[in-house]
Every structure is written in structure tokens, then in C-alpha cells.
Write a structure and sequence with these properties.
It is a single chain. This protein is of the alpha/beta class. The protein folds into 2 domains: 145 residues, HAD superfamily/HAD-like (Rossmann fold, 3-Layer(aba) Sandwich); 61 residues. The strands form 2 sheets. Strands 5-4-1-6-7 form a 5-stranded parallel sheet, sandwiched between helices. Helix 1 packs across helix 4. The chain is globular and about 55 Å long. The chain starts with a strand and ends with a helix.
């Protein structure tokens, strides 16, 4: 019986891609590179900021990677919430879910941005655990964040589910041995998510309620 739900943040609860694209292209502009299309940058997301910057720069500039990551933080700090909004039906679904489930967030985004965005968009909700990337946290697919969320929710391993939009989320759930609910509106294609999980991604956050009901009663 599912009692706790762990959500990814970017691409799952929040549409953050435009602001991330702005910061990445600001970094590229600093190095006099042409801007990238948003769909290209979206394909680079899911493994944390350092990997995002690495994938977004030509190889000849990677000798300046540390400086580029610092630049990204400076640029993103000024635009991280300019256009970021919750996806359709996220707020309404969370209101329904919090009545019966414990809720947590586990993200590969830097902890400071996770904290700020959760406060800005989900301040009315109680998340038992809000976990992001920092010096003491390992990123997904390492299970550290899942374990911390599970413990803070007071759930056992067979009582939790991970909801996410990326193959990293799928790999995390598969390695730890918990159910995954892929979502179709995030940064990776439905076809790729189905290929990696053999589960049809849900098309709306409101579909998550039926998805969990199916797990609980099968």
C-alpha cells in the first residue's frame, strides 16, 4: 500500500526549462558561443548543474568548467523564477494527495534553488523532505535522497513511489526497487521513458491518483 510519494522537481512539478535555458545561453554568450535551442538544453537536464554546463559547452571550453559553473550560478540566481510555474493540475492534485499521503521532493537541482522554488510555489504544502544537490547530498540515481525522504515520511520501502520525468528517475527507482511513475510533460520524450521503464507515462498530474490506486488495489 502506497503511503508516501516522492516527486522530482524540474520537469515534474515545475516547468523550469525556459529559465535554465536563459542561464545556459548567458554562459555560452560569455564564451562567445551561439545560443542553444531550448529543446537541446532540455535534453541535457537531469544530472545536476555541473553536468548541464558540461554538456552545454564546446569541448574546447571545458578547461574553464569550474568558472563556467560559477557563471551559471550567477546568471541563474537572477532569473531562476522569472518564468518558472507549476505544470497544469499540479497544485490541485497536490491538494488532493496531501489528504491521504506523505509528500516529499528529491531533486538533482542545487539545494538552494530547490528551497527557493518550493517556498515560492508550494509554500502552502507540507513536504516531509525537500532534498536537493549539495556537498553532503548524493544525486540520483544514488538512493540517498530517496532513503532520506522515506525515513522522514515514516514509510517503509514498499510504501513509497517515485514520480519523475527522466531516465535518471527511472534508474533511481529501479536500482532501489520501488515503483516509478513517469510523466509525459517533462524534459524527455514519452517514447524514451516507456522504453526505459516499460510503463506508459501519465499525461496529467491528475492521472497520478488513478496510477497509485492501480498499485494499491492490484
Amino acid at each position: 500500500m502506497i503511503k508516501g510519494i516522492i516527486f522530482d522537481l524540474d520537469g515534474t512539478l515545475l516547468s523550469t526549462d525556459t529559465d535554465l535555458c536563459t542561464a545556459i545561453n548567458d554562459v555560452r554568450a560569455f564564451f562567445r558561443c551561439e545560443p542553444l535551442e531550448i529543446e537541446t538544453i532540455k535534453s541535457y537536464l537531469g544530472d545536476g548543474i555541473r553536468m548541464l554546463v558540461t554538456r552545454s559547452l564546446p569541448n574546447e571550453y571545458l578547461v574553464y568548467l569550474d568558472d563556467a559553473v560559477e557563471l551559471f550560478h550567477a546568471f541563474y540566481a537572477s532569473c531562476y523564477n522569472d518564468t518558472t510555474v507549476p505544470y497544469d493540475s499540479v497544485i490541485e492534485t497536490l491538494k488532493t494527495l496531501e489528504k491521504n499521503y506523505r509528500l516529499s521532493i528529491v531533486s538533482n537541482k542545487a539545494q538552494k534553488y530547490v528551497n527557493q522554488l518550493v517556498k515560492a510555489h508550494f509554500n502552502d504544502f507540507k513536504f516531509d523532505c525537500v532534498y536537493g544537490d549539495d556537498v553532503n547530498h548524493k544525486r540520483k540515481p544514488d538512493p540517498q535522497g530517496i532513503i532520506e525522504a522515506m525515513n522522514q515520511m515514516g514509510c517503509s520501502k514498499d510504501e513509497i513511489i517515485l514520480v519523475g520525468d527522466s531516465t535518471v528517475d527511472i534508474e533511481t527507482a529501479q536500482k532501489f526497487g520501488i515503483p516509478i511513475c513517469p510523466v509525459a510533460w517533462g524534459f524527455q520524450s514519452k517514447e524514451l521513458l516507456y522504453k526505459e521503464s516499460n510503463i506508459i507515462p501519465i499525461n496529467s498530474m491528475s492521472d497520478l491518483i488513478l496510477f497509485i490506486d492501480g498499485l494499491n488495489y492490484n
